[in-house]
């Protein structure tokens, strides 16, 4: 169950990456992924309750999407590695898996 769910999550990330490139307007990364300067400016405005409205995702939402994509991918990758001959039973791989999954849980709650 665990492995199947993990690979399914990886497949969903894969399809989201494709949608981010060729999907509808507000699904595209180019529409909502912003550089550090704009993201920090947005966060600063948010702290003052003065953030502008955005169609689709705001810059912080875009950053969170990148983070979630990264963490789910890394969870899947380090999970799969533990099933390979080369990395089976290798301590640091399962430790990274655990840290990534905990970071994922914190991110989801956030
Ligand atoms: C890896 C897991 C998850 C991912 C990738 C994810 C992703 C997202 C995204 C992209 C949005 C839209 C944010 C926006 O409007 O800019 C969203 C909204 C939301 N998610 Fe998740 N989510 C995850 C897990 C969860 C879980 C476990 C729950 C509930 C237990 C949840 C509840 C919600 C709710 C209630 C919203 C609407 C928030 C709002 O409109 O203010 N999500 N999520
Ligand atoms: C989003 C994807 C995934 C999530 C959220 C997840 C979550 C977890 C969690 C919470 C643990 C327990 C960590 C601990 O306390 O030791 C764990 C362990 C483990 N996971 Fe995953 N996992 C994912 C994907 C995968 C995949 C794709 C595989 C293999 C194909 C995998 C294989 C394993 C193995 C072998 C362990 C045991 C490691 C150990 O005890 O040292 N996981 N995973």
From TrEMBL:
GO molecular function, one term: electron transfer activity
Subcellular location: Cell membrane
Membrane topology category: Multi-pass membrane protein
Principal place of residence: membrane
Pfam families recorded: Ni_hydr_CYTB
GO BP, sorted A to Z: respiratory electron transport chain
Key words, A-Z: Cell membrane, Membrane, Transmembrane, Transmembrane helix
Transmembrane segments: 6-27, 60-81
InterPro entries linked: Cyt_b561_bac/Ni-Hgenase (IPR011577), Di-haem_cyt_TM (IPR016174), Hydrogenase_cytochrome (IPR051542)
Protein's recorded name: Cytochrome b
């Amino acid at each position: 169950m665990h492995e199947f769910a993990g690979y399914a999550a990886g497949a969903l990330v894969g399809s989201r990456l494709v949608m981010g490139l060729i999907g509808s307007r507000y699904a595209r990364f180019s529409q909502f992924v912003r550089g550090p300067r704009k993201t920090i400016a947005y966060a600063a405005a948010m702290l003052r309750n003065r953030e502008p409205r955005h169609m689709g995702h705001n810059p912080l939402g875009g950053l969170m999407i990148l983070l979630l994509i990264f963490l789910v991918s890394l969870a899947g990758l380090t999970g799969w590695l533990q099933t390979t001959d080369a990395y089976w039973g290798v301590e640091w791989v399962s430790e990274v898996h655990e840290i990534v999954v905990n970071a994922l849980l914190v991110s989801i709650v956030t």
